[in-house]
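Dear colleague,

Thank you for sharing your sequence with our group. We've completed the structure prediction you requested, and as agreed, I am returning the results in plain text so they can be pasted directly into your records. Please verify that the sequence below matches your submission; if there's any discrepancy, let me know and we will rerun it promptly.
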Amino acid sequence: MNLDCRVAMAPAVDDGLNWARDRHSWPLSEFSFFRECAGVHWHLQQLGSGPCVLLIHGTGASTHSWRALAPLLAERFTVLAFDLPGHAFTLGTPSGGLTLEAISDALATLLDTLAIRPRLIIGHSAGVAIAARMALAGRVEPRTIVSLNGALLPFNPAPGLLLAPLARLLAATPFVPLLFTWSARRRATVERLVRSTGSTLDAEGVDLYWRLVRSRRHVAGVLEMMAHWNLAPLARSLPQLAPSLLQLVGLGDRTVPPAHAERVRALLPAAHTVRLPGLGHLAHEERADLVMQAIDNYRALFDGA
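Please find the predicted structure tokens below.
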């Protein structure tokens, strides 16, 4: 076994998150395992059988966000999900920090060491950028990338220029994660955050995000990732993307505007777009059945994988 990817024990006690305690109530924890690879202590989940599908969650989420969709996919696929570096139960930072490039390279190294070759990748929001970056770098060769409200291109220049320095300032200020977790002690605060995405989650969904934001380490990781996220190089390379792209767009998304998908299609005219009325940024958590149906309707893109 590669010494850089050793079998790992569950992470130690963390403020707000403790695997020894939380695994008993964490979604799909019976499928969880841990690996140490590329400077990161990864929390992963694997279930099902068949061709491999890789699930990549977005900023601020974790494996919990696939709790409804993963079992549906597992009826046809071997499903592999994980927590991004700095998120939930994945500890450590890859060499290069929490940039798009460093996270993508660390994940690709993990997949190589585990001898996993996903033929279908499903990403949500920033997770789609990670999938695309790995494919463009030749580190993975999926037949199809499914984009769930994908954030593949920079937003309008002015907000983008303002957001990055603000996030860097917040990430560099030690008390900010503590202040945020303190403010999120009230469940109503998290309910408002979820609603601001245009999505409506059930009580379990809100509770899981509430548990995440009460971890200072998780919040610090999210801020650090936001501070160093730069989509401009990816946007320039996107027309060279080889895998098919299926865009599932929640028309009520208030985080990544639905018009974002049309900007992507201007660069990738062959991309397929499916609109999901009434669903927001967390569409796959709201109606996993509708997302699965949309994927099945385009199964020709990845059948035979």
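Summary note from our side: The chain is about 40% helix and 15% strand.

Kind regards,
the structure core
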